[in-house]
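worker-03 picked up job from queue 'complexes'. Input manifest follows; two sequence lines, order preserved.
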Amino acid sequence: MSIRNKYSFFSIAKNALTHHENWQKAWKSPEPKKNYEAIIVGGGGHGLTTAYYLAKNHGIKNIAVIEKGWIGGGNTGRNTTIIRSNYLWDQSAALYEHALKLWEGMSQELNYNVMFSQRGVLNVAHNLHDVRELKRRWHANRLNDIDCEWLDTNKVKEFCPIINTSPNIRYPVLGATLQRRAGTARHDAVAWGYARGADEMGVDIIQNCEVTGINIKNGNITGIETTKGTINSNKVGVAAAGHTSVIANMAGIKLPLESKPLQALVSEPVKPVIDTVVMSNTIHAYVSQSDKGELVIGAGTDGYTSYTQRGGFNIVEDTLMAIVELFPIFSRMKMLRHWGGIVDICPDASPIISKTHINGLYFNCGWGTGGFKATPGSGWVFAHTIANDHAHELNAPFSINRFSSGELVDEHGAAAVAH
Amino acid sequence: MFLINCPYCGERDQAEFSCGGEAHISRPKNPPDLTDDQWAEYLFLRKNDKGLHYERWNHAFGCRQWFNLARNTATDEILAVYKIGDKPPKLNANTPITPSGEPNIGSGNLATSKKR
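worker-03 finished. Artifact:
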């Protein structure tokens, strides 16, 4: 980051003199060049971090990030911003923990405040099965050197006083795991921060440019067709989330993905009332409070394939019923906004970060409902895969071949709905 | 959220139904001869098209019958309802203009402004 562009107290003071009208643009938005060393399809968190780490870790700076909408307008700006690494299986735990460590230094590294707040994440158990599953995950986490604690009902109440721990509710709180290093971040700041960081290193961020075709010659990728013309490159990384299958179709590749709407909603802003993140797989609710004071509530996926970025009201209703039972204090709050994002779900609820049988074409997809927490780690390993044409040790288990070999990383049990 | 015209009960709220995923996938006739890739194709790989999609639905909180739908996954418009065992009807589904092709101001989501 050059001194001229660095955000600091002094740059605020300096720009105050000109009424804050002369701030530099965070990124340039140029027209695409004819050739690039690498193209990243998808300007969300994962695409931008991939470009950033390709430039930073691997010295590949002649990169285009192609985004059909605008930066921060897709799932990066639609998720419920929960960050944690308490996954069951070793492969996932290693990948998400790597990401969590990058989160811890992100604001410093990017010179951009992503408001990463390690406020802790509670995963609540409501029945004996939940207790056993969560305790199993707690022990698995400890063996993987990931911080995790088990709280009994009284300790849950102590940690989050507004939670209803009455034994008489339909799904009583029998305990919870707590990861203290987990938390939330401001999601669009993450996209903007990485976009700014990548742009600074010479990456071209091209918005409002949709990919319409993939050019392949003799099993090698030669470039892409877009609404802004042909762009050539012999390395193309696709990080298109819910629309990955659409891109894969253009290359004649079939992937084990199903794209579904995932809904979230926020309430009217209120004074600080909940200083942690509470998640429950069984009754399917998760809630935290943003710095603006809104409750950020995540619902589940709708049960059918759709690209509409909206879902059924019954899903929202179920989620709010669960929230109100756990937090009776919220029963008269009004919900302000509600939206959906399209998530690409793998049969084993784990991502695909992989080469393909076409030379130079790589996919980073299948993050399903839980990609935000992995944003920096995902870009890190995907950049490694693109630069070296082989997987990083962290994403080697997440190859596309696992669906043929049977080595699935089945995170449904550990992550399931509140993935 | 949409209404589904169950071939047995008529038009009902989608919340009464559960989706069984892509239709017309038949179980392999010669399972022992299949390669790993062919098994992966049968078990895991799905069309997941944006646009025309043939899928199975079950009227779970109604008559509990299975049937097929042809739906445009880009707009959730239902194009045809037909019974299990029937051949899929030949249809076209238009996908809406994506953000890169939408007017800069005031378009909202063009997919939702379609007149019924």
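worker-03 released lock.
The mean pLDDT of chain A is 93.
The CA atoms of residues 237 and 344 of chain A lie 16 Å apart.
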